[in-house]
Write a structure and sequence with these properties.
Chain B: Keywords: Copper, Electron transport, Heme, Iron, Membrane, Metal-binding, Transmembrane, Transmembrane helix, Transport. Chain B: One of its GO terms (molecular function) is cytochrome-c oxidase activity. Chain B: One of its GO terms (cellular component) is membrane. Chain B: Belongs to the cytochrome c oxidase subunit 2 family. Chain A has a single domain, classed as Cytochrome c-like domain (Cytochrome Bc1 Complex, Chain D, domain 2). Chain A is built from three helices and two strands. In chain A, strands 1-2 form a two-stranded antiparallel ribbon. In chain A, α1 crosses α3. Helices cover 36% and strands 17% of the residues of chain B. Chain B folds into three domains: 75 residues; 120 residues, Cupredoxins -  blue copper proteins (Immunoglobulin-like), CATH 2.60.40.420; 88 residues, Sandwich (Immunoglobulin-like), CATH 2.60.40. By secondary structure, chain B is of the alpha+beta class. In chain B, α2 packs antiparallel against α4. Chain B is built from eight helices and ten strands. A five-stranded mixed beta sheet of chain B has the order 3-2-1-5-8. Classes of the chains: A mainly alpha, B alpha+beta. Chains A and B meet through α2 of A and α7 and α8 of B. The complex binds copper (II) ion (CU). Copper (II) ion binds next to loops of chain B.
Chain lengths: 86, 344
């Protein structure tokens, strides 16, 4: 999923070798982050809403909405939480 | 690079059987036959050398003396290589004469220009006029020879689709002709095979082979779009067809994307046929919505990669000649991507 829409073109994501873009923050060790994008509590529901439509979840966010469904967004959120910190 | 990402470069260099040993056309076949011939000869000679080494170290005295004699040097060191190498040369030249067959003038013609670090592609009619401008991909009809006019706009590049032919250099100030023919439909990756500086390793393209009738229809449709002026105030492309997944957040508008495209300066480097966007420094974007890759064969083409490329192409392909647009807001990137998706 993360590969199908290539979140990697803007983020460095552990487990995704390519692409490794830098327009957005690295998502490594990100489940320990307190606030999501510096604004929202870091919970699965907020994360799923954010990765699907960031500008709606956090007004002014610089990450665009992604063409994915709500269910897909939950899978993405699950993956991001499941990543082992290295 | 990773799993699951379509990339022209990966398709050109990886896979099983290896692309060089998996010809998809007559010109590649002769190269493959030669490659096998050389491989087998190489193995045979290595075998003989190892055997001789064994004899020299552990063999019976009588054999060792023979091996060390002057006669062995004359035969093994001079006569054998002279005969074998001459034979291989003659065979190789005979096998590859088809690669330099004279051009009859009836073949379809495509002009491909190596640029730092992408490929400009122009389809020509029989009179040599450009009918379709495109980039980073080559479409071919099945079983019909096509002549590629290979040129370079800057430094030496080399054009290589391992499934279809050998490498051919793209040299500034010269036109090198390369005949290709495909005997199987499908997608084949290609790469620049001559170091050309900077992100050379990220300079690839995609070749797609169509059934003959499909190819003719495809080319006619593209030529028609390219000849068509876009009315003032209209949005080029097919903005009504931007994929609308009912589940997807529907906030991005091709019309606003088009306005941003002009105001942000994209039009100074990119052309969209029939509009005032006529920049030639970057790839033609008239058909970028159906492009098989982005960034010259390195990324799949969809919303995420499109936004990511425009936002920060410099982190994806460091040193490439398009600036990163990190000052665009998320909304603006979304509109621009929706607009580019409509360019078919
Ligand atoms: Cu190159």
């Amino acid at each position: 999923m993360i590969e199908r829409v290539s979140c990697g073109s803007c983020h460095v994501i552990p487990g995704v070798d390519w692409p490794r873009g830098r327009a957005g923050p690295s998502l490594e060790g990100f489940d320990d982050a307190g606030l999501l994008a510096g604004a929202l509590p870091n919970t699965p529901a907020n994360l799923a809403a954010f990765v699907r439509d960031a500008p709606a979840a956090k007004p002014g966010s610089t990450m665009p909405a992604m063409p994915i469904t709500a269910a897909e967004a939950q899978d993405v959120a699950a993956y991001l939480y499941g990543m082992k910190d290295e | 690079m990773s799993k699951g990402q379509a990339s022209g470069i990966m398709e050109a260099l990886w896979g099983w059987p290896p692309p060089v040993l998996d010809p998809a056309g007559p010109y590649a076949s002769s190269v493959t036959t030669l490659a096998w011939g050389l491989l087998i000869m190489g193995l045979a000679v290595t075998g003989v050398v190892i055997a001789a080494l064994y004899v020299a170290i552990k063999g019976p005295e009588r054999w060792r003396r023979k091996l060390g004699g002057e006669k062995a040097v004359w035969i093994g060191g001079i006569a054998f290589p002279a005969v074998v190498l001459t034979g291989l040369l003659v065979w190789g030249l005979a096998l590859t004469t088809s690669l330099t067959e004279p051009i009859t003038g009836r073949e379809a013609r495509v002009r491909i220009t190596g640029e730092m670090w992408w490929f400009r592609v122009e389809y020509l009619d029989s009179a040599g006029r450009v009918i379709v401008r495109d980039a980073n991909e080559l479409h071919l009809p099945l079983d019909r020879p096509v002549v590629l006019e290979l040129r370079s706009a800057d430094v030496i590049h080399s054009f290589w689709v391992p499934h279809l032919s050998g490498k051919k250099d793209m040299v500034p100030g010269r036109i090198n002709l390369l005949r290709v023919e495909a005997s199987r439909t499908g997608r084949f990756g290609g790469v620049c095979a001559e170091y050309c500086g900077g992100p050379h390793a990220l300079m690839g393209f995609v070749t797609e082979v169509h059934e003959e009738a499909d190819y003719d229809r495809w080319l006619a449709a593209r030529a028609a779009r390219q000849a068509q002026p876009v009315a003032a105030g209209a949005i080029p492309g097919r903005p009504g067809e931007v994929v609308r997944d009912p589940a997807e957040p529907q906030r991005y508008d091709p019309a606003r994307g088009w306005a941003l495209f002009r105001d942000t300066g994209c039009a100074a480097c990119h052309r969209i046929a029939g509009t005032e966007a006529n920049g030639l420094a970057g790839p033609d974007l008239t058909h970028v919505g159906t492009r098989l890759s982005l960034g010259a064969g390195i990324l799949p083409n969809h919303r995420g990669t499109m936004m990511g490329w425009v936002a920060d192409s410099q982190s994806i392909k460091p040193g490439n000649r398009m600036p990163s647009y990190d000052r665009l807001s998320a909304e603006e990137l979304g509109h621009i991507a929706a607009f580019l998706e409509a360019q078919k």
